[in-house]
Specification:
Two copies of one chain form a homodimer.
Chain A: H1 2-13, H2 15-18, E1 33-34, E2 40-45, E3 52-56, E4 63-64, E5 66-69, E6 72-76, E7 83-91, E8 94-96, E9 104-107, E10 110-117, H3 124-127, E11 137-145, E12 150-158, E13 170-174, H4 183-186, H5 190-199, E14 207-210, H6 245-259, E15 269-274, H7 276-287, E16 294-298, H8 312-318, H9 320-329, E17 338-344, H10 350-363, E18 368-372, H11 378-389
Parallel strand pairs in A: 13-14, 13-15, 15-16, 16-17, 17-18
Antiparallel strand pairs in A: 1-2, 2-6, 3-4, 3-7, 5-6, 7-8, 7-10, 9-10, 11-12, 12-14
Helix pairs in contact in A: 5-11, 6-7, 8-10
Chain lengths: 394, 394
């Protein structure tokens, strides 16, 4: 290999080779640098810039970087708690990704750079990291949906032991509005969370099915025949689908049960989702009473029908279809082992979820409630996945 | 769904919701816009910028954008040939990705925006596009390599009919230096090329196995336990691996043959690779004579041993191990149906490949030669995949 290394180094260094391929836009800097004390240093070379700022979900407002020397701007944070963080720079008013950091996430149309802070084994930063543990496979799977009349794409995680045989329980994991079948594996770090919790014996080995909740598009932007369109929030609703996500979900489950070695029955089947996916979870679980033993609503958008001036609990109670579905869902035969409602204190959907709880309390439908700080954010949804995935199939 | 739409629109528009999640860094522009005549218009809002440039692999040198109004800078190209193109902006000296275009590729540490020009069904732009045809699944698979003593990641494409049953031939498809198991599905558009050629009846349905050719890393940057390190060209050689990629390749094949429904035998087994992966292809095919019926060298780095002042053909001929391997590979029993050598006229490896051809001519080892314009670039490698994948298993 030594001679091959010398050879390729020659390729890299030769000026003519630079013309062969690639537009190199990196900088010879390390950024971000997660320091041992949990502080994080950012660096950007921008010699002509007048003002360079840093915006991130670890800051209450954008901060100014300071020009050090040779046009390199820097900023060091205070010590940060364990978490996966997102940030961008702003250079003279233009949003700008850190060219020294190749780790990036897309949320609808916005890219951010990311980094992870972990301070101890088992903290959330550690659970979001790829550790030296057995890894599950992540497959992008196309399935036919007779209900929608389309071929659609989903992401399926199989646990590390899957290739060795055996059958496994299934968690259906749903994204929010603006997301797609990539959301939970990119922003949600679902594969890392499951790998790490399974390795620690804290979650059961399970198959995780991450579907696309936009009924009128087949896959994530760029991955289906609409081509490289510019995504936007709920943009997928340009042409109507033949059915709703909740109506078509039976096609997903029937595909998974046919093509994967799954254990069925409510003790082996779970569903959860965030925001719009929380609504889908709420709706799908009502359409399939007795199917899911574990149901998780993460910052869920609860109930859309009825007069918005009427409190949610009354809208549910007074709708004979919905209240009837709840009655069937919580009948002795069908009732789930866990109906889990999680939300942040400052989430704009807090009151909706309080209304659902009020309805369930009045109806004596059991549920578990998990309230956190913060709002409608991925930090919470990743945390809810960590919590929920340890409660199921046990 | 209508009420749900209204609900989520309210989320999007409310000022408080903006504080809930995401750093929106998009612009309300369409860029790039591929016009009907094949010209392409770029737009960037940069009101404070003094100079905005566009650099791309469709330009001989960077061009200046012109400030139109409201700080929006634009440029329109001449009509472009069908191709997948890459570009970046430069704003006052800083490389800058197009915030209106979420479609991006990473090549080592550099990101570029991309777009596709297609002018007719079946042209290369069309073959690189996701069309309304049946799609194969793309799985990220972890396998154990006893030879390297590590768990490693590879990308496996299964053809659209795979889920219905049957057994399939296998193409092993190898990346170049600096790349990883993501390279062929991102920069190489391998899944789209195969989907489209299979749908057109031009390529046989096949399994495509895209391995990681860096023996001392387990997976692409960020996907293994080294964490979110900054990748660099050949950076993976920081700690030595227990064996070379070519020595360890038997572990890949044995995993694939055990876990996938593959047809074996040289009429059902092909291997090809680009640059360093061309070297791996050359080496692996010699280590496994009779295994591969179809061998493709794309801009291959041919032969590293010996005195670099001696022509390649003489170095091969005078090395008893290598010339002996060639003799076995081309024996009556083992000889491949196709030994395919492809290179661009201005590739810096052109002379190496000419040397290999000289050796093979002198030894009467049959091969096919495919010479194109251009150099050591993805445009050529995608083109070579289109050509090679139509020649195999027939």
């Amino acid at each position: 290999m030594k001679s091959f290394l010398a050879f390729t180094s020659a390729l890299l260094l030769s000026a003519s080779a630079m013309a062969q391929q690639a537009l190199f836009n990196t900088q010879d800097l390390t950024s971000p640098e997660v320091n041992k004390d949990g502080t994080v240093t950012f660096r950007l070379s921008a010699p002509k810039a007048v003002k360079v700022q840093l915006n991130g979900d670890f800051l209450s407002k954008p901060v100014d970087l300071k020009e050090e020397r040779n046009g390199v701007w820097t900023y060091t944070t205070e010590s940060l708690d364990p978490e996966l963080y997102s940030y961008t720079f702003k250079v003279d008013g233009l949003e700008f990704l850190d060219p020294s950091n190749v780790y990036r996430n897309r949320d609808i149309v916005s890219f951010t750079n990311m980094f992870i802070v972990s301070k101890a084994k088992g903290d959330c930063g550690d659970l979001y990291s790829v550790n030296n543990v057995p890894h599950g496979n992540v497959n992008r799977v196309w399935y036919g949906s007779p209900t929608l009349g389309t071929q659609r794409r989903m992401t399926i995680y199989t646990p590390p032991t899957y290739e060795k045989g055996g059958s496994y329980p299934v968690l259906y994991l749903l994204h929010g509005a603006g997301g797609d079948e990539e959301a939970w594996v990119s922003l949600g770090r679902a594969a890392q969370v499951l790998d790490n919790l399974i390795a620690a014996g804290k979650a059961k080995p399970m198959i995780v099915v991450m579907t696309n909740g936009n009924a009128n598009c087949d896959a994530a932007p760029g991955e289906w025949h609409r081509g490289m369109y510019k995504p936007s929030f709920m943009s997928h609703n340009e042409s109507p689908a033949k059915a709703t996500t909740e109506e078509a979900y039976k096609d997903v489950m029937s595909y998974v049960e046919k093509h994967y070695r799954v254990r069925t029955g409510k003790n082996n089947t779970a569903i959860c989702g965030l925001s719009m996916g929380g609504y889908h979870t709420y709706a799908i679980s009502k359409l399939h009473p007795g199917k899911f033993g574990y149901i998780g609503l993460f910052s869920a958008a609860i109930h859309m029908g009825g007069n918005s001036n009427t409190p949610i609990d009354q809208r549910i109670a007074s709708d004979p279809t919905v209240s009837g579905q709840f009655k069937t869902l919580f009948s002795a035969k069908n009732k789930p082992y866990l109906y889990w409602i999680a939300i942040g204190k400052t989430d704009f959907l807090y009151e909706q979820n309080a209304g659902l709880r009020k309805f369930m309390d009045a109806s004596h439908y059991p549920y578990e409630y998990y309230e956190t700080e913060g709002g409608h954010i991925w930090k919470n949804w990743r945390n809810y996945l960590i919590e929920f995935s340890q409660k199921i199939f046990k």
